[in-house]
Amino acid sequence: MSGRRDPIRVAARGVAAAGICILMVAVWPRVVAAHTFHASLTQIEVNASANTVEVGIRVFVDDLEEALTRRTGRRVRLGTTVGFDALALDYVSASLGIEGANGKRLAFSWIGRETSVDVVWLFVEAPLNGQLDGGRLENKLFFELFDDQVNTVNIKDGKRRTTLTFSTGDGAKQIGFSVDS
Amino acid sequence: MIRVIAAVLVCLSSVLTATAQSPETVRSPREDKFRQLEEILPTPNTYRTASGAPGHQYWQQRADHVIDVELDDAAQRITGSETITYRNHSPDSLVYLWLQLDQNMLAKGSDTQLTATAPTLDRTSFDQLDGMLTRATFEGGHVIASVKDAKGQPLNYTIVKTMMRVDLREPLAPGGVVSFSVAWSYNINNARKVRSRSGYEYFEKDGNYLYAIAQWFPRMAPYTDANGWQHKQFLGSGEFSLEFGDYLVRLTVPNDHVVAATGVLQNPEAVLTATQRQRLKIAETAAKPVQIVTPDEVKAAESAKPSGKKTWIFKAQNVRDFAFASSRKFIWDAHRHDVGGNRVMAMSFYPKEGNPLWGQYSTAAITHTLDVYSRYTFTYPYPVAISVNAPVGGMEYPMICFNGPRPEEDGTYSARSKYGLITVVIHEVGHNYFPMIVNSDERQWTWMDEGLNTFLQYLSEREWEETYPSGRGEPRNIVEYMSSTDQVPIMTNSESLLQFGNNAYAKPATALNILRETILGRDLFDKAFKEYARRWKFKRPMPADFFRTMEDASAIDLDWFWHGWFYSTDRVDISIERVRQFTIDTRDPDVENPARKAEEDARPDSLSEQRNKAIPKAVDRDPSLKDFYNTYDRFAVTPREREAYAKFVAGLSPRERELLNSGLNFYLVELRNVGGLVMPVLLKLEYTDGTSEELRIPAEIWRYNSKDVSKLVMTKKELKAIVLDPNLETADTDLENNAFPRRPVKSRFQLFKQDGRQPNPMQMLERKPEAGPNTSPGTP
After folding, report:
1. Alpha carbon of B75: minimum distance to chain A alpha carbons (Å)
2. Which among A10, A31, A177 is the top mutation candidate for probing chain B, defined by the most B β-carbons within 10 Å of its own β-carbon?
3. Which residue would you say has higher pLDDT here, B133 or B530?
4. pLDDT band for position B747 (50/70/90)?
5. Chain B residue with minimal CA distance to A53?
6. B387 touches chain A (CB under 8 A)
């Protein structure tokens, strides 16, 4: 394996963490029903009374397992891997970035997860100082896996709502609420 | 009636008060959400009627195939030749024919490769790099060796990406038949590295290959009344658009391979052992799957080498495509199943890596699917139904489908894998109905097969077991997607869909479930849906044919529904803005005066009034300051009032007197359509006496004003609260405005957090079954 590291390093020079992960297991592509879906859906809600941001992220289980496997270099499986939640929080924190209007990136803490057959909801929350409106958001979940990933983020702050959509390669976007959603 | 009420009604009180108005606005209230679809749908003609049925001059082309093909296991290569007999049933002369060369999607420099956008590279694994490199260097694509006419003379042809035009020597007249042959070859992709709908899987441990072969022969592009030649290039997402025909296929493979294919095996004595044929005979009458090839036999085959080749011959009638799978690793189980009088051989083919899951569930899921789908559509017409474990997630072909899920390598499996397998088998076998038999154009409209199929999949899952963890179909599961603003309508071309899963599967499936449960009711919906399937069985429907048939068979104008759910990205969000109460003024002073007094007494004292109460008053210090007005009770009933009332009553008719004393409460419920999608208004009226009732108002309540409407509720009882959509039937995206008075609604996040982070029943899905196959996973 080590013999193969150099070319990747060269190819990915200047890119942090390139080539450190080797996927040891074949991960099934999810093509349930003839089409690969590479999509996630995130619900972000401001809890004004607690001054927190509550986040629910719906992802496909096999996408998450594949991402964590690549990230850690070992086989990660929901339900059997010890410390799965910490790995998931770490990955979410690295991939989903929320900056409040004051420019500070929110720090998530783990609340839990809820699994169904092929999807899992990940719940995290973070204290919020000030406003979300005017802040910035990035969501690069699974961009490293799929060139056709689409991440939809619904943001709710009281009565105000907006949606941001991130396709593979997209950077951070401004959070702004329009009157008419 | 209205005039009478107006004459006697006096607004007594507004016991329930309005909360803040939503800042959100919807488009112009004058937008007609009920405008007819006529202006959008194609004009009916003799091919397709205004009622959604095939017209009296409906036609479709036909293409019969005779194919000889050889699978080269050493080089993972397909070499074939075919004779296509093409029948022109159209009223048009054709000077050339178009064929589809789907493998060209995997060719170097294909549009699929060129238009793929870049992945992010800040974390790249060797595996990912390997995949990228393999894709870029894979020598894929159809290599056409020859195209010849019936006399063996070469025909001119031109390859345009994934399409090939064959120039006919003379025009093919209406009603004419032409035969021609094509010879070709191509390299089979490694489906693990170059993802596609077919390919091979290499098993490193035993050095064997498993082939799932599809889109493998040059196929006729359809020529249709609606689109002419359907030769929109294959980019990868828009699936297939095909013609029906009969197939005779001779498959030559290593002589230790077992082959599964569309159609019926014609030469079992030449390719199967006597033992296997004997087992097949037993399977004809068995109630449970019988192993035709056992795991032990597979184990022996895995370490042996083939001594030659065998040719498996299959025939299939009236199919739109032909696919096959071949490997020496296949365990094969089968049993015959009676589907509405048609005796179908249900069969599964899987490597040992698929067990224990596959032996337990694959064939059982096939027969379950055939039973349920046939009930909602038509009797499954084909002689076989096959599920193959292959290196694709799930892909459907006539009579045969490829499904991915496997247990863990240690032979255990999670409940998630179990339901993943049953779900995908139901879905892919279900595709036999849509689009294999109801032959919609997948290249154009993904929802016509995926949406309808996901809907029937949901119904089938509900009949598998009560707690089946269905992912799609329940209105509450689509809420998050519906509330996002970055969507495209369902009526969007297959290649441009932004979110395939939600848009083409979940949203149409949920819309149909709502149409069935909430708008038409089960009987009316099932009749109409079945009629659509019956009308278009072995024919090619367009979206309008579905929309029109559902109305035609139900007598319900659904244009508003198609507009909202299929042509727009509006969401459902209906709000109870305000409720006002009115009661009848009886004019009886002995009733009304005490009531007004009670109302006055009920008014709270202001802060100043409360504080001023204790202050000594001048009239108390000096009672001589008091006069008549200090003791006058303005609510006391006077003889003059009684007299006026008696006179009023005397002038009323008996019916008017009855109305006056009816004791009715009138509640004016003001509703606002915040989300834009018009839907029925479903109200649960909760009374102070603890009873409740449901009021189901059709969507037509919005027909004059699609933004604000009010509804009058007359009742002798007193209302305590009103809840909109109490059974969560409509996918309402904001439940906070669904109750009056407002009730706090917890988000998914808050509900989870509130439950104290306990593993909920669904998390049991992550755990491996301990008690065997009947372990229940709990509810979603």
Report:
1. 22
2. A31
3. B530
4. confident
5. B749
6. no
What percent of chain A is predicted at pLDDT more than 90? 54
Phi and psi at B104, nearest 5°, equal -65, -15
Overall average pLDDT of the A156-167 stretch: 91
Residues from chain B that touch A121, judged by Cβ atoms under 8 A, are 748, 752
Return d(Cα B123, Cα A95) in angstroms, integer. 12
B757 pLDDT band, cuts 50/70/90, is low
Residue from the list A15, A54, A123 with its beta carbon closest to the beta carbon of B122: A15
- Identity of the residue in B117, B416, B424 whose CB atom sits nearest the CB atom of A32: B424
Hey, what are B334's tokens? 């089968």
Alpha helices, DSSP H only, in chain A?
Answer: 5-11, 61-72, 84-95
Which architecture, in CATH terms, is B41-58+445-566? Orthogonal Bundle (1.10)
Its CATH class, for the domain covering B62-112+134-444, is mainly beta
Residue B16 has a pLDDT of 34
Structural domain boundaries of chain B? 11-23+574-585+661-745, 41-58+445-566, 62-112+134-444, 587-655, 748-780
CA distance B290 to B275: 12
pLDDT at B118 over 80: no
Topology of the domain comprising B11-23+574-585+661-745: Immunoglobulin-like (2.60.40)
Closest C-alpha to B541, from B24, B42, B128:
B42
Distance CA B240, CA B321 (A): 9
The predicted structure's pLDDT at residue A179: 52
Contact B469 A23 (CB under 8 A): no
Confidence of residue A109 (pLDDT cuts 50, 70, 90): very high
Would you say B265 and B314 are in contact if contact means Cβ atoms under 8 Å apart? Answer: yes
Longest dimension (CA), chain A: 57
Tell me: cis bond preceding B741? Omega within 30 of 0 counts: yes
More confident residue, A17 or A164: A164
Interface test with B, best of A115, A143, A178 (most B CBs within 10 A): A115
Sign of the Cα torsion B417, B421, B427, B428 reads positive
Considering only residues 96 to 155 of chain B, which have any Cβ-Cβ distance to chain A shorter than 8 Å? 116-129
Judge: A18–B485 Cβ closer than 8 Å, yes or no: no
3-state SS class at B565:
helix
Question: In chain A, which residue's Cα lies nearest the Cα of B453?
Answer: A33
In this prediction, residue B767 carries a pLDDT of 52
> Which among A22, A35, A145 is the top mutation candidate for probing chain B, defined by the most B β-carbons within 10 Å of its own β-carbon?
A35
- Inter-chain residue contact B126 with A162, CB threshold 8 Å: no
Task: Examine the pLDDT at B300 and tell me if it is beyond 60.
Answer: yes
Q: Which of B125, B753, B762 sits opposite A123 (nearest CB)?
A: B753
Do the first three CATH levels of B41-58+445-566 and B62-112+134-444 match, i.e. the same topology? no
CA distance A53 to chain B (A): 10
Tell me B22's DSSP state: P
> B189-224 burial string, b = 16+ CB within 10 Å, else e?
bbbbbbbbbbbbbeeeebebbbbbbbbbbbbbbbbb
Calculate how close chain B gets to A113, using CA atoms only, in Å.
Answer: 8
Interface of B with A in 207-226 (CB under 8 A): none
Q: What share of chain B is helix, strand, coil (3-state, %, to 5)?
A: 30, 25, 40
The confidence band for A178, taking pLDDT boundaries of 50, 70 and 90, is low
* Mean per-residue pLDDT over chain B, rounded: 90
